[in-house]
Amino acid sequence: MVPMTDTSRAVPPAPQDSPFDPVEVAWHPVSGRLAAVRVVTALLVLGIPLLAFVLVVVLAHALWAWIVAAPLAVVLLWLLWLLPRQVRAVGYAERDDDLLVRRGIMFRSLVVVPYGRMQLVDVTAGPVARSLGLASIQLHTAAAGTDARIPGLRATEASDLRDRLAARGEARMAGL
Fold it and tell me: Which pTM does this prediction carry?
Protein backbone atom coordinates (compact mmCIF):
# COMPACT_ATOMS: atom_id res chain seq x y z
CA MET A 1 0.00 0.00 0.00
CA VAL A 2 1.34 3.46 -1.02
CA PRO A 3 1.00 6.19 1.62
CA MET A 4 -1.03 9.20 0.50
CA THR A 5 0.58 12.62 0.71
CA ASP A 6 -1.17 15.52 2.35
CA THR A 7 -1.25 18.42 -0.12
CA SER A 8 -3.55 20.55 2.03
CA ARG A 9 -0.56 21.82 3.97
CA ALA A 10 1.29 23.24 1.02
CA VAL A 11 3.73 25.99 1.92
CA PRO A 12 2.68 29.30 0.39
CA PRO A 13 5.21 30.75 -1.99
CA ALA A 14 7.54 33.39 -0.63
CA PRO A 15 6.40 36.94 -1.36
CA GLN A 16 7.91 38.23 -4.55
CA ASP A 17 9.02 41.76 -5.12
CA SER A 18 6.74 43.23 -7.77
CA PRO A 19 7.27 46.63 -9.41
CA PHE A 20 3.87 47.70 -8.04
CA ASP A 21 3.93 45.95 -4.66
CA PRO A 22 7.37 46.03 -3.01
CA VAL A 23 7.99 43.49 -0.26
CA GLU A 24 7.78 44.61 3.36
CA VAL A 25 5.96 47.88 2.67
CA ALA A 26 3.11 48.81 5.01
CA TRP A 27 0.44 50.28 2.74
CA HIS A 28 -2.12 52.71 4.13
CA PRO A 29 -5.46 52.64 2.29
CA VAL A 30 -7.47 55.77 1.65
CA SER A 31 -10.89 56.22 3.22
CA GLY A 32 -13.77 54.22 1.80
CA ARG A 33 -15.76 57.46 1.83
CA LEU A 34 -13.85 58.44 -1.31
CA ALA A 35 -16.03 55.96 -3.19
CA ALA A 36 -19.10 57.88 -2.00
CA VAL A 37 -17.59 61.16 -3.24
CA ARG A 38 -16.89 59.68 -6.65
CA VAL A 39 -20.33 58.01 -6.87
CA VAL A 40 -22.08 61.29 -5.98
CA THR A 41 -20.02 63.09 -8.64
CA ALA A 42 -20.91 60.46 -11.25
CA LEU A 43 -24.59 60.69 -10.32
CA LEU A 44 -24.51 64.47 -10.69
CA VAL A 45 -22.66 64.41 -14.00
CA LEU A 46 -24.47 61.46 -15.63
CA GLY A 47 -27.57 60.83 -13.50
CA ILE A 48 -29.19 64.22 -13.98
CA PRO A 49 -28.94 64.14 -17.81
CA LEU A 50 -30.10 60.51 -17.76
CA LEU A 51 -33.15 61.47 -15.72
CA ALA A 52 -33.90 64.32 -18.14
CA PHE A 53 -33.83 62.01 -21.18
CA VAL A 54 -35.99 59.40 -19.42
CA LEU A 55 -38.52 62.12 -18.62
CA VAL A 56 -38.53 63.15 -22.29
CA VAL A 57 -39.26 59.54 -23.26
CA VAL A 58 -42.03 59.13 -20.69
CA LEU A 59 -43.75 62.52 -20.96
CA ALA A 60 -43.29 63.35 -24.65
CA HIS A 61 -43.26 59.76 -25.95
CA ALA A 62 -40.09 60.66 -27.84
CA LEU A 63 -38.44 57.29 -28.41
CA TRP A 64 -35.43 58.97 -30.02
CA ALA A 65 -34.32 60.01 -26.50
CA TRP A 66 -33.45 56.36 -25.74
CA ILE A 67 -30.53 56.76 -28.18
CA VAL A 68 -28.94 59.04 -25.59
CA ALA A 69 -30.46 57.61 -22.39
CA ALA A 70 -29.41 53.98 -22.93
CA PRO A 71 -25.66 54.65 -23.30
CA LEU A 72 -25.78 57.07 -20.35
CA ALA A 73 -27.42 54.37 -18.22
CA VAL A 74 -24.83 51.78 -19.23
CA VAL A 75 -21.92 54.11 -18.45
CA LEU A 76 -23.46 55.11 -15.12
CA LEU A 77 -24.00 51.50 -14.06
CA TRP A 78 -20.45 50.61 -15.10
CA LEU A 79 -19.06 53.53 -13.04
CA LEU A 80 -21.13 52.55 -10.01
CA TRP A 81 -19.48 49.11 -10.20
CA LEU A 82 -15.96 50.39 -10.99
CA LEU A 83 -15.50 53.37 -8.65
CA PRO A 84 -15.43 51.44 -5.34
CA ARG A 85 -12.87 49.03 -6.81
CA GLN A 86 -10.69 51.94 -7.93
CA VAL A 87 -10.78 53.45 -4.45
CA ARG A 88 -9.67 50.16 -2.88
CA ALA A 89 -6.64 50.16 -5.20
CA VAL A 90 -5.33 53.54 -3.94
CA GLY A 91 -2.80 53.58 -1.14
CA TYR A 92 0.37 55.16 0.15
CA ALA A 93 3.37 54.10 2.18
CA GLU A 94 5.93 56.14 4.06
CA ARG A 95 9.46 54.74 3.99
CA ASP A 96 12.65 56.15 5.49
CA ASP A 97 13.73 58.07 2.39
CA ASP A 98 10.63 58.32 0.20
CA LEU A 99 6.87 58.19 -0.13
CA LEU A 100 5.16 55.58 -2.31
CA VAL A 101 1.76 56.22 -3.90
CA ARG A 102 -0.03 53.48 -5.81
CA ARG A 103 -3.28 53.39 -7.76
CA GLY A 104 -5.02 51.56 -10.56
CA ILE A 105 -6.63 48.23 -11.27
CA MET A 106 -6.03 47.51 -14.91
CA PHE A 107 -3.45 50.24 -15.53
CA ARG A 108 -1.42 50.27 -12.34
CA SER A 109 0.85 53.07 -11.24
CA LEU A 110 3.44 53.42 -8.51
CA VAL A 111 4.98 56.83 -7.85
CA VAL A 112 8.05 57.12 -5.62
CA VAL A 113 8.78 60.62 -4.31
CA PRO A 114 12.05 61.11 -2.40
CA TYR A 115 11.50 63.42 0.57
CA GLY A 116 14.46 65.57 -0.45
CA ARG A 117 12.81 66.34 -3.82
CA MET A 118 9.52 67.62 -2.39
CA GLN A 119 9.05 71.36 -2.77
CA LEU A 120 5.43 71.82 -1.74
CA VAL A 121 2.68 69.79 -0.09
CA ASP A 122 -0.90 70.91 -0.90
CA VAL A 123 -4.01 69.82 0.99
CA THR A 124 -7.28 70.35 -0.90
CA ALA A 125 -10.92 69.36 -0.49
CA GLY A 126 -13.95 69.96 -2.70
CA PRO A 127 -17.43 70.56 -1.29
CA VAL A 128 -18.58 66.92 -1.44
CA ALA A 129 -15.31 65.62 0.03
CA ARG A 130 -15.35 68.30 2.73
CA SER A 131 -18.90 67.36 3.72
CA LEU A 132 -17.67 63.79 4.29
CA GLY A 133 -14.56 64.92 6.18
CA LEU A 134 -12.09 64.06 3.40
CA ALA A 135 -9.13 65.86 1.85
CA SER A 136 -6.47 65.18 -0.79
CA ILE A 137 -2.73 65.71 -0.69
CA GLN A 138 -0.77 66.81 -3.77
CA LEU A 139 3.03 66.66 -3.70
CA HIS A 140 4.94 69.05 -5.90
CA THR A 141 8.51 68.38 -6.98
CA ALA A 142 10.89 70.02 -9.43
CA ALA A 143 9.76 67.51 -12.08
CA ALA A 144 6.63 68.88 -13.74
CA GLY A 145 5.37 65.41 -14.67
CA THR A 146 5.21 64.06 -11.12
CA ASP A 147 1.69 62.94 -10.23
CA ALA A 148 1.97 62.25 -6.54
CA ARG A 149 -1.57 62.78 -5.35
CA ILE A 150 -3.26 60.94 -2.49
CA PRO A 151 -7.04 61.44 -2.63
CA GLY A 152 -9.60 60.50 -0.01
CA LEU A 153 -7.71 60.90 3.25
CA ARG A 154 -9.59 61.75 6.42
CA ALA A 155 -9.03 65.46 7.08
CA THR A 156 -7.05 64.84 10.28
CA GLU A 157 -4.93 62.18 8.56
CA ALA A 158 -4.25 64.57 5.66
CA SER A 159 -3.17 67.30 8.08
CA ASP A 160 -0.87 64.94 9.99
CA LEU A 161 0.61 63.52 6.78
CA ARG A 162 1.20 67.03 5.40
CA ASP A 163 3.12 67.98 8.55
CA ARG A 164 5.20 64.76 8.52
CA LEU A 165 6.02 65.11 4.81
CA ALA A 166 6.97 68.78 5.18
CA ALA A 167 9.24 67.99 8.15
CA ARG A 168 10.91 65.09 6.34
CA GLY A 169 11.34 67.20 3.21
CA GLU A 170 12.98 70.03 5.17
CA ALA A 171 15.28 67.57 6.95
CA ARG A 172 16.39 66.00 3.63
CA MET A 173 16.85 69.40 1.93
CA ALA A 174 19.07 70.63 4.77
CA GLY A 175 21.75 68.19 3.67
CA LEU A 176 21.93 69.59 0.11
Answer: 0.79
